[in-house]
């Protein structure tokens, strides 16, 4: 399955780009996607545990099952205001 | 709308929240200051997961309205590049009396700073930049110790 990744904040800087594409064997969870990202971008490894993830406009847990075409957002620690 | 790239306008917020039963109006404006942790700051750049931020800020407004004896609570946050002195966030609270309005305003600003998916990149006089350390959203694998608003940003809090 193909997953679109959108990196926010420092995650974009660490991975080198705002957006990435992952190809994962089905079935796959958010955790599987993060493991694949960590393998592809070692600079992200330390930051990933502190990132929440969202599919659409919903924050999802690590065991959330992804479907083909999902857009997964990496949300590092926030600093608004 | 809670997230906008346009310069923030206070008058529409005041008009939208006007209430003849409200004797108290508290307005918080978070403006970009020119220093943070001893470094000279030139500008900030805010980014957001807009869809999620709209949803979560609206939920925080409703939560604040339920928690305090107030008539209304509205927050607007700007994204994009902001220069020194520009306003990044407005929070408007109206209540019958000032005590609840002040407390609720502090609560809603704190909640948005710690729970909305918005990120701040600081640009310094020496030409470098960095993303400000922040608070983990619920759903992260580990919890970053919460830092006070004064520790996390170059906006006045």
Distance between the termini of chain B: 22 Å
Strands of chain A, total number: 7
- In DSSP terms (H or I, runs of 4 or more residues), the helix count of chain B works out at 4
Structural class of the helix and strand makeup of chain A?
alpha+beta
Helix content of chain B: 25-40%
Largest interface: A-B, 27 and 42 residues
For the report, how would you describe the main beta sheet of chain A?
5 strands, mixed
- SSE topology string of chain B: EHEEEHEEEHEEH
Mean pLDDT of chain A: 96
Q: From the structure provided, what is the oligomeric state, counting identical versus distinct chains? A: heterodimer
Structural class of chain B: alpha+beta
> What's the alpha carbon Rg of chain A, rounded to whole Å?
12 Å
What's the structural blueprint in terms of helices and strands?
The complex is a heterodimer of chains A (81) and B (157).
Chain A: E1 2-7, H1 10-15, E2 19-23, E3 28-29, H2 30-40, E4 52-55, E5 58-60, E6 65-66, E7 71-75
Parallel strand pairs in A: 1-7
Antiparallel strand pairs in A: 1-2, 3-6, 4-5, 4-7
Chain B: E1 3-4, H1 10-17, E2 24-31, E3 35-36, E4 39-48, H2 50-67, E5 72-78, E6 80-83, E7 87-95, H3 98-115, E8 118-124, E9 129-131, H4 149-152
Parallel strand pairs in B: 1-5
Antiparallel strand pairs in B: 2-7, 3-4, 4-6, 4-8, 5-7, 8-9
Helix pairs in contact in B: 2-3
Structure description:
The complex is a heterodimer of chains A (81) and B (157). With 81 residues, chain A is an alpha+beta fold. Chain A has 2 helices and 7 strands. In chain A, the strands form 2 sheets. Chain A has a 5-stranded mixed sheet. Chain B is α+β, with helices and mostly antiparallel strands and 157 residues long. Chain B has 4 helices and 9 strands; from the N terminus they run E-H-E-E-E-H-E-E-E-H-E-E-H. In chain B, helix 2 runs antiparallel to helix 3. The longest helix of chain B is centred in the middle third of the chain and has 18 residues. The two termini of chain B are 22 Å apart. The relative contact order of chain B is 0.24. The interface between A and B is medium-sized, with 27 and 42 residues.
């Amino acid at each position: 399955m193909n997953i679109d990744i959108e990196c926010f904040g420092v995650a974009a800087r660490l991975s080198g780009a705002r957006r990435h594409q992952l190809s994962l064997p089905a079935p796959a969870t958010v955790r599987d996607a993060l493991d694949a990202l960590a393998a592809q971008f070692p600079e992200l490894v330390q930051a990933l545990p502190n990132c929440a993830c969202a599919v659409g406009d919903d924050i999802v847990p690590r065991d959330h099952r992804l479907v083909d075409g999902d857009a997964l957002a990496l949300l590092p620690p926030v600093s608004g205001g | 709308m809670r997230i906008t790239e346009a310069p923030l306008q206070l008058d529409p917020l005041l008009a939208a929240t006007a209430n003849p039963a409200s004797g108290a109006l508290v307005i918080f404006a978070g403006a970009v200051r020119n220093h943070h942790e001893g470094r000279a700051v030139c500008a900030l750049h805010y980014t957001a997961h807009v869809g999620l931020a709209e949803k979560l800020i609206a939920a925080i407004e409703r939560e604040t309205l339920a928690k305090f004896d107030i008539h209304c609570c509205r927050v607007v946050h700007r994204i994009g590049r902001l220069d020194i002195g520009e306003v990044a966030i407005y929070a408007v609270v109206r209540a019958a009396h000032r005590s609840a309005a002040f407390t609720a305003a502090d609560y809603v600003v704190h909640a948005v700073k710690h729970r909305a998916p918005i990120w701040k990149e600081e640009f310094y006089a020496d030409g470098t930049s960095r993303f400000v350390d922040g608070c983990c959203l619920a759903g992260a694998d580990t919890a970053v110790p919460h830092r006070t608003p004064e520790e996390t940003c170059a906006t006045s809090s």
